[in-house]
Amino acid sequence: MTRWQAYQALVFILPIPFAGNVDWAWSVYNLTTFSLLLLELHARFSAASSKSLNVIALPEALSKALPVLALLLAGQAIVMLQVIFGFSNAQHFSYQYLIQGLSLCSFFALSLLVLHTKERINRIIWVIILAAAFQAIYGAIMVLTKLEWGFFIEKPAYLGKATGTFISRNHFAGYMEMCLAIGIGFLLAQSKQATGNWKQKLRQTIETLLSPKIIMRLLLAIMVIALVLSRSRMGNSAFFASLMITGALALLLMRNKSRSTVILLSSLLIIDITIVGTFFGVEKVAQRLQNTSSEHESRDEVSRDAFNLFKQYPIMGIGAGSYEHVYPSHKSADVRSDKLYDQAHNDYLQFLAEYGVIGFMCLAMAVLWCLYWAIQAMRLRKSSLHKGLGFAATMGLMAILIHSAVDFNLQIPANAFMFVFLLALACIARWSPSRTSRHTH
Description:
Blueprint: H1 3-13, H2 23-50, H3 60-84, H4 91-114, H5 118-145, H6 169-190, H7 198-209, H8 212-229, H9 233-253, H10 259-280, H11 282-291, H12 299-312, H13 323-326, H14 347-380, H15 384-403, H16 413-431
Helix pairs in contact: 1-2, 1-5, 2-4, 3-4, 3-14, 3-16, 4-16, 5-6, 5-8, 6-8, 6-9, 6-15, 6-16, 8-10, 9-10, 9-15, 12-14, 14-15, 14-16, 15-16
């Protein structure tokens, strides 16, 4: 197996074993990512040595993204200080988070190293969509047949809701949001305006119907069905909100946009909401939103407690990964005693509490920088591929950033890796040359 094939396999496998939310899966992901990055760098060093070059050649997207990578690594440096100098309230778990954080940084760099051609970008997008479609089909089948199995075990919770091989429907929905954004951006990159007389337009329409784009559109429809079947309130809200916001940005910023772009964006909203919603129960999601009450939820109180933890340890935080060990002794009396909150159900507040303001700002600046580049790609790039990738990264990042206000998707390995992939995709969309070398390693 080549390095490129191993990278594709890793991306496909990420969500399968409980979304990686078990220790052994994290270990496999970490080891694979570190190994692939070292092998890729070794191959480039060897190539540079054979040509008597003093420096290795880096893809332009990675060269431009080095400041972003530095910010991500600075966040991990804070965790290292927490471990070395005893700032962490649970040093063992902070050490684990350090390894995991370095693994995610390595995946960011690795993605920018290996995705250096249009062909590879297209291939990895198909791998992601097929992985997500597998999760969607499996999750939908489990709901419709009432078999209710997860990853080789019977589901202990969320019966009647689509979860795929994930443990939680909300994290399943978060994964769907990001993958749907990638698929929609890819379709936009492929959309072209029909030209010529009616015969030529008819031929172009038939060619489109017979092309892989139709397969992609069908897979995206299946993924939307699974998202609705998850009954995740914020998952569905984040998806449609990010689609509308990014769609508006695309129509406003993209130059030389074709009529097919407008038609595609409109159809995604109209078809998916009306047809899919009618048959698979989007009204049940709406009902859950209407029935949401602070009297039956403790998340507001948990978020308040997380912010209070941050105020007690504002600079260096309580230690990465320490939340579930520190929170029980800081839980307020008005938080439901029958529920275990091992996460803050708000990624922003949990990162603030665990990493402190310095670590949080390093990570936040890296994310916002990439989001800015993704939006700029829609505005400035002439290549339809890079504009589409900019749309994908913008929508995907917005979706998970909205969802993160009430959940902890970024604590789940498969979703964290996919989030980092979106960061890398934003860099590729903005800085990757329109014509890339066909040489592969």
